[in-house]
Amino acid sequence: MTRLLQLSDPHIVPEGQLAYGVVDTAAALADAVDTINRDLHLYGPVDLAIVTGDLTDFGSPEEYARFRNIMDGLPIPYRVIPGNHDLRENLRQAFSEDGWMPDSGPIVWSVDLPDFGVVALDTLVEGQHHGLLDDRAVRFLVDALEAFNGKPVLVATHHPPFATGIIPMDVNNLRNGSLLRDILDAYAGETRLICGHVHRSVTTVYGSSVAMIAPGVSHSVTLDQREENPHTLSLEPGGFMLHEWRNGLVSHTVAARFPADRHPFSSPEEKPEGASRA
Ligand SMILES: [Fe+2]
Ligand SMILES: [Fe+2]
Questions:
Q1: Domains contained in the chain, CATH given
Q2: What does the alpha-carbon distance between residue 18 and residue 232 come to, in Å, rounded to a whole number?
Q3: 258-268 burial, b for 16+ CB within 10 Å, e for fewer?
Q4: Quick one: which ligand is closest to 168's CA?
C-alpha cells in the first residue's frame, strides 16, 4: 500500500523566538515528528512525507536550518514546496544537496510511488501573499500528468484554489486555480489536490477532483467568516494528514500531539440496563 504523510505550515522562526509573539512553532513541529515516530508502527510503512509550504516564517537560512534539524528526526524521507512565507532561493539552498529540486525556476517535482504519483507545484509569488502557478509550473504539471498516463495522482500546492469563507485568506488563495481545475478535469485518472496555507482542515469537491487543505502542525487561522474579519490565529490543536491508496485515495487527519495511552472499548464496568454501546 502506498502512503504519503502531509505536514503543512510549520512557520519555523529563529531560536528563542515565538511566531507572532505567541506560538512556539518549533515545539509544535517537534511534537508532530515525535507523534509520527511513536505511532508509525500502527499505520506504516509510509513511502514519503511532504511539507506543503510556509516551512519558515521569514525565509531566513537560520530558520531553514532549524526546520531541517527538527525534520531530521522524521523516520521517513521528505520533500517540500514553498509557501508565501518562504524565500525560494534560501529554501533551494537549504535543500540543494538532496538532489530532488530543480536548480532554478519554480520548485516543482514529481514522484512515481507504487499506487499513485505525486506532483508538487510551487505557487509562491515572492513578496506577495497570494499564489500563482507560473507558465513553467503549469507546463511541469501537464508533462507530469502525461507521463503518469491515467495512474492516480496527488497534486500538492501551498495555496488552495477555492474559497473557504475566511476572507483575508480567500483574497490570497491561488489566483489561477481555474486553470489548474481544467487541467485536472482533463486527466484520465483519479486526482486529489492537497494544499496548506489556511492552517485548518477544509475539503471540497473541485471539478472532477477532491481538494483538501491540511491543518497546520502548529496554530490555525481562526474560522471567522464575518465580513469585518480581524484576521487572527487560534491555538487549536495542530495536525497532519495521511493520504493512502485503498482502491481509491483515502485521507486521514491526525492530531500532532496527544497522549500515548490506548484504552480498550471493552470495559469491565457493568453496562446499564437497556443501554447499547457503539
Ligand atoms: Fe501558513
Ligand atoms: Fe501561506
A1: 3-255 (3.60.21.10)
A2: 16
A3: eeeeeeeeeee
A4: 2
Closest ligand to residue 214's CA: 1
CA within 13 Å, CB half, 142: 10
CB 55 within 8 A of CB 61: no
Cα–ligand 1 centroid distance for 4 (angstroms):
20
Measure the CA–CA gap between 44 and 99, rounded to whole angstroms: 25
- Ligand 2 centroid – CA 36 distance (Å): 23
Q: Could you tell me the distance, in angstroms and rounded to a whole number, from the CA of residue 278 to the centre of ligand 2?
A: 40
Residue 204, classed as helix, strand or coil, is: strand
- Ligand whose nearest atom lies closest to the CA of 123: 2
Report which secondary-structure segment, H or E, holds 70.
helix 61-71
Q: Which ligand is nearest to the CA of 9?
A: 1
Whether the per-residue pLDDT at 41 is higher than 90: the answer is yes
Ligand nearest to the backbone CA of 215: 1
Q: How many CB atoms lie within 10 A of CB 60?
A: 15
- How far away, in angstroms, is 97 Cα from ligand 2 center? 25
198 CA distance to ligand 1 centroid (A)? 6
Nearest in space to 112 (alpha carbons), one of 206, 4, 12, 40: 4
Q: Taking each helix axis from N to C terminus, what angle separates 135-148 and 177-185, rounded to the nearest 10 degrees?
A: 20
pLDDT of 205-264, one tens digit each?
999 999 999 999 999 999 999 999 999 999 999 999 999 999 999 999 999 999 999 999
The counts of H helices and E strands in the chain are 6, 13
Instruction: Name the nearest CA neighbour of 176 among 127, 118, 126, 135.
Output: 135
pTM over 0.90: yes
β-strand partners of 191: 153
